[in-house]
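ok here's Cupin domain, seq below lol
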Amino acid sequence: MKGHDAMTIEPRLIVTGREADGTSVFVTDEPADPTTIAAFPGTFYLMWGTDDGGTTVGTEPQEPKVFPFFPGPGGTRALFLRFAPHSSEPAGDPEAIAAEGAEKLPGLLDVFEPDNPGMHTTDSIDYGICLEGELHLELDDGKEVKLVPGTLVVQQGTRHAWHNKSDTPALMCYVLIGAGR
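and the structure came out like this:
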């Protein structure tokens, strides 16, 4: 596949922690698990998240909180999302597609507008960093901007959609911070 060679980023998760005596240690170092659903043309790598309302650090080990997909106020999520080339609408039985999405990525599809493919609004501040390829961010009235590697988008709870119009995958890293509206 063009542009998808040995230089392609393979998401990896490294987590640190502390022993009871306070010594810093590596808790996790592993490749990220890919997740795909028919409702979305791409691959999700759910990396880490924290509980709503804020979090603390110390010697108690933290477990990742990745569901629901979008955090509530004070919660966070970190993920990679590789958008397929020429991302298009899913084909197949809409009920089966929705059920698979609800099972594998609970909460994701709830924010999407049924009559405006791809458009959605979340109650979060999202930092989106383009790492590979190019992606278009669409806002109201069809206004768009093209993202290339090195671009950071700060998405402040606005209505938007993402489109890969190119022949190669596009990889984004997102950090979502749950917010009140």
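fwiw Residues 94-104 form the longest helix (11 residues). kinda neat tbh
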